[in-house]
Each structure stands twice: as C-alpha cells, then as structure tokens.
Design a protein that fits this description.
The protein is α+β, with helices and mostly antiparallel strands. Helix content is 18%, strand content 42%. The chain has a 3-stranded antiparallel sheet with strand order 1-2-3, with no helix packed on it. The protein is rod-shaped and about 75 Å long.
Length: 93
C-alpha cells in the first residue's frame, strides 16, 4: 500500500509600504476638486493615473515602495494522510 502525506498552510500577510507624495498641481484632472474629491478620485483611479516622474501608475509606484512592516496572522498548518483502500480514497486530517 502507498500512502500520500501532504502539509497545507494558510495564512494572511499584511504588508505596509512606505508612502510617497505627489503634487496635485501636476494632475490637471484634479483641478477644481476639493481635497476629499481628489482623495476619492485618486483612490478609485490609481491604476489609471500615471505618476508624472516615474512613468508608471500610482498603483504600481505604491506597490514598489520599500516595505516598512509586515505581519503574518491566522497561520494554520495541517498534516494530511491519504490512501486508496479497496479502491476508495481515505483521508485523515
């Protein structure tokens, strides 16, 4: 008889990256908006707004900033044993 052994792991990772500053005067699409309107617009359109100096979207620029902190939570490991017994799969967790 052959028995398969497997380990599964699940977890949640939180990553906090460094921030950067943009000058809203460099983005004509923000003209005439209040601060709150600008913030909402940037939040909703970050993938489509190009950073004026870095030639990439604000989303991409933010994703490349240095990692300041990270944390792994909710980590769970499980040990699984599986075998075919009389043609039927048997699993034990």
């Amino acid at each position: 008889m052959k028995i398969n052994i497997r380990m599964t792991e699940t977890y949640t990772t939180y990553v906090i990256r460094d921030s950067f500053t943009i000058d809203t005067d460099d983005y004509p699409e923000l003209e005439g908006m209040s601060e709150i309107e600008m913030m909402k617009y940037i939040h909703e359109n970050s993938e489509n707004i190009e950073h004026k100096e870095w030639e990439q979207s604000l989303w991409d620029a933010a994703s490349e900033m240095d990692v300041l902190r990270d944390k792994i939570t909710d980590d769970v490991s499980e040990f699984h044993v599986e075998a075919l017994v009389d043609g039927h799969p048997i699993k034990i967790k």
